[in-house]
Specification:
404 residues; alpha+beta; Nucleotidyltransferase, domain 5; 2 domains; seven-stranded antiparallel β-sheet; five-stranded mixed β-sheet; 11 helices
Amino acid sequence: MIRAYKFLMRPTVRQEQALTEMLRDHCSLYNGALQERRDAYRHASKTSIKYGDQSAQLKDIRAFDPERQGRWSFSSQQATLRRLDKAFAAFFRRIKAGEAPGYPRFRGVNWFDTVDFPKDGDGCRWDSTPHDPVTRVRFQGVGYVKVHQHRPVVGRVKTVSVKREGRKWFVVLTAEQERPEPLPANGSVVGIDLGIANFLADSNGEFVPNPRHGRSNAERLEAAQQDLAKFPRVHRDKRTATHRRAVEKVAKLHGKVRRQRLDHAHKTALDLVREHDFIAHEDLKIRNMNRAPAPKPDPDQPGSFLPNGAASKAGLNRSIADAGWGVFLAILNAKAESAGRKVVAVDPRNTSRRCPQCGHTAKENRPTQEKFHCVSCGHNAHADTVGALNVLRAGLVRREAQPA
């Protein structure tokens, strides 16, 4: 199995400058390749340029500009061109699916923050020796950079990436390792219902409160963004030190919220995996849930629109994004796979409207957000607990139906 590791790097001033130049030059390569594809399609009878065509030009590009392109790893530049090729592949896939196309865009220097090395030992070298207390990673054109390795890397390192987050630098590794020993079975099964009022409710009647990290930091983030908005939009070379500090403050607050969400998701998922052999959850289509409501034209006044609840829906979308359901479910599935646990996603329709006692399904069974009262048999319970129970039952049915 493949596992990812992320470690903080501690580059010197000169190494940090070299890392910044590496991102800048790879960004220039990405934008140049994108411009070539655009020009070929527009001016050369709609000619399409593929990855192989652009990769074949790398040797000439490196010879023409040895100071900016020739100093970096050839394989990392190929990875940057593959990154653009994947963006175009996703663009054409969305067109065929009838979705919003989202044509690949040019990247600003501050928005291009990752360089990939497809193979350890080709332009990079992960150097972690047991007898050396200091871990280092070597990059072509940069040198050996110190790494704060807070946990051991198990298995053989496959790929290495450099990532910039604000003023911090990270190295991201993927390692191929043997499947770990599964946790001992305990026979426990559980269904979970994700929500806004409570982050999670399980079929045993337990609740995990929603920490609302985004809301708790909203005032400070709003003040920082207002300070940043006071500066006019100017070229990055003409920005003042005060402007850069304002940008860094906003980025720092966003990073704090992101780390808080990740920490909460990891701890919650770990508790579930340790306590239960089988976990069922709703198969949520989060992207569809976050869609803005369609406008309602006013038939009596052309050019005007009727209220469509966009303001309240925007507040709900913020709460869904703040909860971080997608990140949590991805972490839960990864931890369950490592521990030998089973996770099943079930259809969420009517899970909070179906009575777990008599099976009657009706909208009237849920008079409020929290209360469940069956109009047929009179069963009363918390609506989220009822949803978790129905999710568990549907998950167990799916487990029995799947071939061994």
